[in-house]
Amino acid sequence: MNKILIPIVGLLCFSVQSIKAQNNCSKYYPMVEGSSFQYSMTNKKGKIDGVADYTVSSVENNGGSTAATMQMKYTDAKGKEVFISDYKITCTGDGIKIDYQSLMPSQMMKQYEDMGLEMEITGTDMELPNNLSVGQSLADSNVSVKMKMPGMNMTITVDMVNRKVEKYESVTTPAGTFDCYLITADNKSEVMNMNQDMTSKLWLAEGIGMVRQESYNKKGDLVNRTELTMFNK
Description:
Elements: H1 2-17, E1 36-43, E2 48-62, E3 65-76, E4 81-92, E5 95-98, H2 106-114, E6 118-124, E7 128-129, E8 137-138, E9 141-149, E10 152-173, E11 176-191, E12 194-205, E13 209-216, E14 222-232
Antiparallel strand pairs: 1-2, 1-14, 2-3, 3-4, 4-5, 5-7, 6-9, 8-10, 9-10, 10-11, 11-12, 12-13, 13-14
């Protein structure tokens, strides 16, 4: 069962933090076909856990909104491909939203179906408005995954609450130095009646998107970090 739960929870937490999009409708995320991003994930000791490569594979404009298809490839610390995912992002003049229904990698879903597992994903879109300012509070977000197998029903939930724009500062990663808004949030997850509370910090740069993201446990200790290591558009 852990082989099922670990990738699901990990993907949900990372995807909720790293939404990408833009044409002219979001000032923070470039949504240009062919744009690519690479993020490296490290543990509390700074050791690489994995690398996620994103590419904007297609962009469609429809009236007042723009939709993009994102391709994500995740490889582990040894360079082994773990999964490939396609999901859709919708962008309007106010900001961006994510399509939770398309979050799960089709490759992973096929494996679960072969195991007799049925899955349903629902959630409240996480919104990222264009008019960010220090001190601003942002709407809560959540995603829920219901799974059914013979003799077992289970629900995984991830909630992001108390989202707030804390400050504006410069951040340096291997991809360069960027002026960013720092957004903090409380992340609450529940898996098989086991609860986990963490806090997160997200650094967001105009025209780039997520530059760095960090997670902390209840004691305030760093658990993991994800940061931009390559960017092309």
